[in-house]
Amino acid sequence: MGKLNCKRASRNVPLFVAGDLSGDLNREMVNHLAICEECGRLAQEFRESNSLLTEAFALPEFGAQFYDEIRNNVLDKITRDVISSRPRFRHRWIFASAFALMLVASAVMFVRWRAAQEAPQDLASTTQIAGKTASNQPPESASPLQSKDLPRKSQRTSISRKPVRQTTLTHPTSQQFQSARNLAASPGGLQVSPSERASASEVSRIEIQTSNPNIRIIWLVAANKRGAPEDNQYKGEPEPRTNDR
Amino acid sequence: MVAEMSHLFLANANDIPAPADEENRADYLTILVTRARAGDALAFERIMLATEQRVVSIAWRMLGNSDDAQDAAQEVYLRVFKYLGRFRTGEDFRGWLYRITINVCHDLARRKRSVMTTQFSEIDFGEAHAEIEDPGTDPETRTLRQQQLALVRRALQVLSTKERAALVLRDLEGLSTEEVARALGSRPVTVRSQVSSARAKIRTYCERLSRRGGHDGKTEL
To answer: Do A59 and B49 touch (CB under 8 A)?
Structure first.
């Protein structure tokens, strides 16, 4: 290390006077201050200011009461915080209990809903069995997995309550057709009472149950309509007609 | 656990004997911290007893006011109680404690920045006068000395917060550079630089003021 000049020495004086330097640098500072009057004076000023600093900030005597107050205040504050935190801890239990109750109630409601969902499915199966004659489809084809495709509960209930009419197809003879035409052609001759109209529709009702349990083709054909053009036959549920012009 | 601690705090703690010699103080404090972390309220009170003088000393020197120092010390121990669980075993507890103290002092000083300088000038000069009064010296010499001390106190207040903290811990509290670095969360070389700069500023401040007559407290460093 080279010889210490005044510029570098003055930079290190604050550390040197407080004993913060060590090794070669400290030794060089000692040697430099011994020969350099200016730097020696600077070091002396630093020593005095450090001495003043220590004296100016000499700790006053606070007394035992001063420290007792600190300790007591801290312990009181901690105790108060603990007491004030207790109700919050109780509230946590209340919230937890309420949450558990809500969970149980939800589970009960779910179980009841599932049970209610299972019951109409059985009724729907009964309906399918009733339509077996017309469709020739085995009711077992509707598996339980298809229960989600079923109509809503209210709809299924109405279906199950609806009387299922078994269809018998009769083939009218040409004489019957002719008499029916004559009856329609005669003025005022076509006086069909509602009961007659109903009986006419009974004969021509055909129900076909498809593989989808939700789809049932109901084919209504009036007795006097037989032999009409084919385009009327595939309308979902045509209005029953009593005369054909 | 905390509820039990609050009751235990009120009891007089005598089951943990304090060490007679300085060498065992660090081990003693380590044991206390371990026990306090495990929920021993008695140990926490012992920690306060073992460290309160140093904490108050740092706070008083940083804030320059005994009331503020008392408030700061209380806040320091409340924070220690709150964050003791985060203290890592094996770490220097005193360094951790001093860091909390410095942070609390910064917070308080920031809060009371507008009145702090006035309080320091008026109240603490009075406290220091009682310390340095010597009946053997003549009044003129005594007055001159008091003016010089007042200058130094003002000089400390115009330092930056980091320089002031480094100077207080290094020169006034007598900590080593490494301990100061741990307390301030910086490197030793940084602390050395801050302390050196602070000493130079104080010397310059005192020199300028003594040339002007020692009554200007607003001199820029």
So the answer is: no
| DSSP, res B4 | H
Q: Cβ-count burial of B18 within 10 angstroms (0-12 exposed, 13-18 middle, 19+ buried)?
A: exposed
Sign for the pseudo-dihedral over CA of B146, A67, B88, B35: positive
**Lowest mean pLDDT, pick from A65-79, A92-106, A184-198, A214-228:** A184-198
A55 in B contact zone (CB under 8 Å): yes
Cβ pair B152:A18 closer than 8 A: no
- Find out whether A209 and A132 touch, Cβ atoms under 8 Å: yes
Q: How many CA atoms lie within 13 A of B67 on its CB side?
A: 5
Test mutation, A44, A61, A70, A84, chain B, max B CBs within 10 A: A70
Which residues are within 8 A (CB) of B74 and not within 5 positions of it... i.e. 6 or more apart?
A: A70, A73, A74, A77
Q: If you average pLDDT over every residue of chain A, what do you get?
A: 69
> Over A64-90, what HEC string results?
HHHHHHHHHHHHHHHHHHHHHHHHHHH
> By the CB < 8 Å criterion, does A53 face chain B?
yes
Torsion angles phi and psi, residue A99, rounded to 5: -65, -40
In tens, the pLDDT along A177-205 reads 566 566 555 555 445 555 555 555 555 77
Given a cut of 90, whether residue A110 has pLDDT beyond it is: yes
**CA-CA distance, A187 to B1, in Å (whole number)?**
105
Measured in angstroms, the CA of B70 and the nearest CA of chain A are apart by: 6
Least confident of A39-48, A96-105, A221-230, B201-210: A221-230
Residues in chain A with CB shorter than 8 Å from the CB of B192 are 15, 20
Cβ-defined contact of A18 to B199 (cutoff 8 Å): yes
Chain A residues in contact with B156 by the CB 8 A cut-off are 53, 56-57
A58, A75, A77 ranked by CB distance to B131: nearest: A58
Cα–Cα distance measured from residue B22 to residue A105, given in angstroms and rounded to the nearest whole number: 66
Q: From A75, which residue of chain B is nearest by alpha-carbon distance?
A: B9
**DSSP state, A141?**
G
ipTM of the complex: 0.76
Do B45 and A75 count as a contact with CB atoms less than 8 A apart? yes
pLDDT at B59 over 90: yes
Q: Is the pLDDT of residue B184 over 80?
A: yes
What does the pLDDT read at residue A231?
46
Higher per-residue pLDDT: B172 or A2: B172
The answer, as to whether pTM is greater than 0.90, is: no
Q: Least CA distance to A80: which residue of chain B?
A: B6
For A44, name the nearest residue in chain B, comparing CA atoms only: B203
